[in-house]
Amino acid sequence: MHRAGTAARRTPEAWGSLLADAARIVKGYDTPVTLRQLFYRLVSAGVLRNTRAEYTQLSHRTAAARRAGTFPALMDRNRRIDRPVTFTSVADARRWLASLYRRDRTEGQAVSVYLAIEKAGLVAQLRAWFGDLGLPVLPLGGYSSESFESEVVDDVRGQGRSAVLLYAGDFDPSG
């Protein structure tokens, strides 16, 4: 990857190269990637500056490339189709239900382990890495939330054992 200047001065050719680099980043994940996650990867590589203008340009350019079919899909954690689960038969419903069954892998352990991540966009990665262990993932999303804090406290109390919180983030609540 190369440093390509600011969004206002970046040439169409430079954007083409930047988008090719960005597409390689997205394709390098085995889980969905958000635009924000991609943006921060490019910022940390020194390719983009951490400004709203750069983020907006990346958003517009990747959207146009996705519509053109030249850029991989990005995950949108804020919007989804909310459709009730339906089945073609009772047997189909039973198969689905059986696929959801899992025992608490931490049952009988002395402590409950919680994985906390600052960015909600990284939940998919944590689930991919630790999902088989059955550990809950807590997307904290920057600034604190009294409601979510109470939910976590109630969950810990409901486990009836001590808890350990493993946190991954940069301690910057503003993003």
**Percentage beta strand:** 5-15%
Quaternary structure state of the chains depicted: single chain
The best one-word shape is globular
Structure classification: mainly alpha
Order of helices and strands: HHHHEHEHE
Low-confidence stretches: none
Q: Helical content, roughly?
A: 40-55%
> Can you summarize the main beta sheet?
3 strands, parallel
Please tell me how large the radius of gyration is.
20 Å
Termini separation = 24 Å
Biggest β-sheet: strands ordered side by side in the sheet: 2-1-3
Question: Can you count the beta strands?
Answer: 3
Total domain units: 2
How would you describe what is shown here?
With 175 residues, the protein is mainly alpha-helical. The protein has 2 domains: 56 residues, no CATH class; 72 residues, no CATH class. The chain has 6 helices and 3 strands; from the N terminus they run ααααβαβαβ. Strand 1, helix 5 and strand 2 form a beta-alpha-beta unit. The two termini are 24 Å apart. The mean pLDDT is 87.
